[in-house]
């Protein structure tokens, strides 16, 4: 079983890949289990749920303030949407037990103090605050007091709001904070992502930066990893043919497989700052250019641009000596196809 001490994210060698289940279980316990198993099978590091009820998020009122305008969710109030989407709290203990037995990390987004207390009873190893709750500083302080790693999603947030959230968490005792670059649009457009912000956040906050990615496909996540993202979070569903509140911007198992595989490739390719030949390149240095005799030359004959050239392979002298050699004389007869050596030049 993986405990909190395994989640020292600052020193993770590999990107932490999180599958966000959210409402994609369709309020079907067996489907929730299937999602956990499939996430593990595809190579994800963690499954994340959301711990709320309609009443912990909003109130049951039908007026212009609570009606949803998003094209995929319109025609209902916030309360009605959350009633369809929330995960029954009675499931959590069993779901965590299953995840633990499979060796995949289980945690959940907390939305109020009751959900924090509930998740603490389950001993989740990490806490998450969503973008919409980032401005709820009292909630962030309450979660931070658990002293567990804390992920903060930053969708919609101004820089000052991110700073306020981080300061609140640190003052309340948070030891490890992970900030997630996020665009809270569903689906988010690639041109809205501004991934270069990840680099700025790394310099400014000196903590691991990840990406909560609501774009379609996996390309944006891969780009984020190339910029140093240490966490990637994607909504995950068994099939988008299963209609849920989140299905239209979730990835399917084959996409998750590709995401995991390609993230690991990107990580390997990042390497370190290096110039010169790699181990694999060394044997190919022979195919670089060098100076060769391209016409038969008699002893005492001058080297000219007609009888020597810079060509492949690299058995002759370096091309940088070309101008130095031109006009000099050959010490002996040299056949066409011979590499030019300095000892042949008088």
From TrEMBL:
One of its GO terms (biological process) is carbohydrate biosynthetic process. InterPro entries: AFP_Neu5c_C_sf, Aldolase_TIM, PseI-like, PseI/NeuA/B-like_N, Pseudaminic_synth_PseI, SAF, SAF_AFP_Neu5Ac, SAF_PseI/NeuA/NeuB. Residues 290-346 form the AFP-like domain. GO terms for molecular function: N-acylneuraminate-9-phosphate synthase activity. It comes from the Bacteria. CDD domains: SAF_NeuB_like (cd11615). SUPFAM superfamilies: AFP III-like domain, Aldolase. This is Pseudaminic acid synthase. It comes from Candidatus Aquitaenariimonas noxiae. The lineage of its organism: Bacteria, Pseudomonadati, Candidatus Omnitrophota, Candidatus Aquitaenariimonas.
């Amino acid at each position: 079983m993986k405990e909190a001490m395994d989640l020292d994210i600052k020193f993770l060698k590999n990107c932490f890949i999180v599958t966000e289940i959210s409402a994609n279980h369709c309020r079907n316990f067996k489907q929730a289990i299937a999602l956990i198993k499939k996430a593990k099978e595809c190579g994800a590091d963690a499954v994340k749920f959301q711990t709320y009820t309609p009443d912990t998020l909003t109130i049951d009122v039908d007026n212009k303030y609570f009606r949803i305008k998003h094209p995929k969710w319109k025609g209902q109030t916030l309360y009605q949407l959350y009633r369809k989407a929330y995960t029954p709290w009675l499931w959590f203990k069993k779901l965590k037990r299953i995840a633990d037995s499979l060796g995949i990390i289980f945690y959940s987004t907390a939305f109020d103090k009751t959900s924090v207390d509930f998740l603490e009873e389950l001993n989740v190893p990490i806490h998450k605050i969503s973008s919409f709750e980032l401005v709820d500083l009292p909630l962030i302080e309450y979660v931070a007091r658990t002293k567990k790693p804390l992920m903060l999603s930053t969708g919609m947030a101004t820089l000052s709001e991110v700073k306020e959230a981080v300061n609140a968490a640190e003052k309340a005792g948070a030891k490890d904070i992970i900030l997630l670059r996020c665009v809270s649009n569903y689906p988010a457009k690639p041109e809205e992502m501004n991934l270069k912000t990840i680099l700025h956040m790394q310099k400014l906050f000196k903590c691991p930066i990840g990406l909560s990615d609501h774009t379609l496909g996996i390309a944006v996540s891969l780009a984020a990893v190339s910029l140093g993202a240490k966490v990637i979070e994607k909504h995950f569903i068994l099939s988008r043919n299963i209609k849920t509140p989140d299905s239209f911007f979730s990835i399917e198992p084959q996409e998750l497989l590709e995401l995991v595989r390609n993230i690991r490739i990107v990580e390997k390719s990042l390497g370190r700052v290096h110039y010169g030949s790699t181990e694999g390149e060394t044997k190919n240095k022979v195919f670089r250019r060098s100076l060769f005799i391209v016409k038969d030359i008699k002893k005492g004959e001058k080297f000219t641009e007609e009888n020597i050239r810079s060509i492949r392979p690299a058995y002759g002298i370096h091309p940088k000596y070309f101008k130095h050699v031109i006009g000099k004389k050959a010490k002996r007869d040299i056949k066409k196809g011979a590499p030019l050596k300095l000892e042949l030049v008088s």
